[in-house]
Automatic annotation (TrEMBL):
Pfam families: Flavodoxin_2
Name of the protein: NAD(P)H dehydrogenase (Quinone)
Domain of life of the source: Bacteria
Source organism per UniProt: Amycolatopsis thermophila
GO MF terms, alphabetically ordered: NAD(P)H dehydrogenase (quinone) activity
Keyword Lipoprotein: no
Amino acid sequence: MNVLWIFAHPEGRSLNAALRDEGLRALEESGHSYRVSDLYAMKWNPVVGHDDFDREPGERLLVASASQEAYETGRLSADIRAEQEKLAWADAIVLQFPMWWYGMPAILKGWFDRVLVKGLGYGIAAEDGTVLRYGDGKLTGKRGMVVTTIGARESSIGPRGVHGGLDDLLFPLHHGTFWYTGIAPLPPYAVLSADRLDDAGFAAAADGLRDRLRTLETAEPIPFRYQNRGDYDENLVLRGDLATGRTDLAVHLRG
């Protein structure tokens, strides 16, 4: 497989960097090819602006239409086009970051904001006008896996833990970014109590990551429901006969 590893941590001597290096070695051992986007090292600009789309600063910027026009005419900025080329090359995306304030670092959010422009990540329709999202789209066929570190202790991450369950914390990324664009999200790999990890804990975390990467090509994705295969009505609301009486996020899982 071709794997794009997107890394978002500012410190090259961090736990995250050490885990990344272990992960890349595991990919090599399994015969995969990889490319790395180390966003902090690249000094990636996370802020959408006129220069992304070859627009004059004084011109009113309608981001969706401007991004689609620039994408379709080849006028996106060079840094965006470089990341889109990596994305096109990849069969799988590994997204690695420390969880800060219940989400990804701003620099990584900005990667999605700038790279997944209209016409690539969203705003895509079939010939009959059907909007292609949530399981369908230009990125369908690719796999995505989150690798994250969380300072919170394991007991506090769960359905009754004060921080909530890991699946709920990552729902916006798994469902609203990966699945929305057609990327099949794999179960995440999370290292908890990351700030208190000792040598033995690191060894166990590294072994666990290597094990997960060995199944990158074969692991079953999170079984989210497709938007366009009958589970949702014309208003994009889950049919009443499915997951009856429930309102938790897991209603969007098949089975």
